[in-house]
Design a protein that fits this description.
By secondary structure, the protein is of the alpha/beta class. Helices cover 30% and strands 20% of the residues. The two termini are 31 Å apart.
Length: 343
């Protein structure tokens, strides 16, 4: 996770508040007010964030420009909001408009910190699940690294790209960006509106005023927001990607549903909306799966997100299926981005 968003996880973990078994999401997105000791940590996070951002805000340091325009797709909250499906849709829309996009990412959970290009042998344990999913879904060049500028320069040295899309990175100030897109969870929004660790915010809500496009994933889009819907109506076998069947064929049947994403409840709700009897198995975002994690016994089939599937294919489960989603947005949104790049 990009600095300074990763900072609170360092000191919060020391207090034991970031363990999956704890109740932070309930505090962030529920009616329960955060305890005083969590509020007391907010000024520490604010100070660390200022320490990271101030040199750029005051011009002491300059963001590094690339020879091609950069589009950053990110959020101002902790956890997943639907950035990766939007990145995939954006890449495809740019190609349809004659662009040659490449993608860079931090590569959350990746084993290597140095910049590296993904290829056909890349594994999620080394490059991260989301970058691998993006490459498999789009076929465009993808590079990962803690230093997003280094990752972009490596990508450009090997591929003839004329625009870079950064998956996450709104808080990665060393990288100059031409367009910023913030993805908002339309159901959970910004929770209690507080900064970490008392709330889910990486940055104050005022940050939205400086962002070019706000995309609302699910829920009801508000003023100045672009509506996005995630559509998933097909199940794909983990063992044989050519084996597919309509999701509605699982309707009326009990399935084990696996989701290691920022908001697993969204995936479970989508399956129930298709008439499926769901046994929920939520995991932490970017979870590193073992075979035992998805060994539930019995003969019920298993459905999981595409992001989880890139890490679970090696377990050779004949009864396991993933449900890819595609982001649906108005064409005018992509036209506006293309026009911004032209100008």
């Amino acid at each position: 996770m990009p600095a300074p968003a990763g900072i609170p996880f360092i000191f919060a973990s020391a207090f034991g508040v970031m363990k999956p078994s704890q109740r932070l999401p309930e505090i962030w997105y529920g009616a329960e007010p955060p305890p005083l000791w969590l509020r007391a940590l907010v000024p520490i996070y604010r100070a660390l964030r200022a320490l990271h951002r101030t040199p750029y805000a005051l011009g002491w340091k300059q963001p590094q420009r690339l020879p091609v325009p950069v589009i950053v797709v990110g959020n101002i909250t902790v956890g997943g909001t639907g950035k990766t499906p939007l990145v995939i849709a954006l890449v495809e829309a740019l190609r349809a408009r004659g662009r040659r996009p490449g993608v860079i990412s931090r590569g959350y959970g990746a084993g290597q910190g140095a910049a590296q290009l993904l290829d056909g042998t890349s594994a999620a344990t080394h490059v991260g699940d989301e970058p691998l999913l993006i490459r498999e879904a789009t076929g465009v060049p993808v590079a990962v690294g803690r230093d997003r500028v280094a990752a972009a320069r490596l990508l450009l040295s090997q591929h003839d790209c004329d625009v870079i899309v950064a998956d996450d990175g709104l808080q990665h100030y060393p990288l100059f960006r031409n367009v910023e897109i913030c993805v908002i969870d339309g159901e959970r929004r910004f929770g209690n509106g507080l900064l970490l660790p008392a709330g889910p915010l990486r940055e104050p809500l005022a940050r939205l005023d400086s962002i070019d496009f706000r995309v609302c994933n699910g829920g009801e889009a508000r003023e100045c927001e672009v509506s996005m819907r995630l559509l998933g109506d097909t199940a794909v076998s983990l063992n044989d990607p050519t084996a597919r069947k309509p999701l509605h064929e699982f309707a009326g049947h009990r399935v084990h549903a696996v989701a290691g994403i920022g908001n697993p409840a969204r995936f479970f709700a989508s399956l129930r909306a298709a008439g499926i009897d769901v046994i929920e198995h939520p995991f932490p975002d970017h979870h590193a799966y073992t075979a035992a994690d998805i060994d539930f016994g019995g003969d019920a089939p298993m459905l999981m997100t595409e992001k989880d599937a890139v890490k679970c294919r090696a377990f050779d489960r004949a009864d396991a299926w993933c449900v890819p989603v595609r982001a649906q947005l108005p064409a005018e949104f992509f036209d506006a981005i293309a026009a911004r790049l032209q100008s």
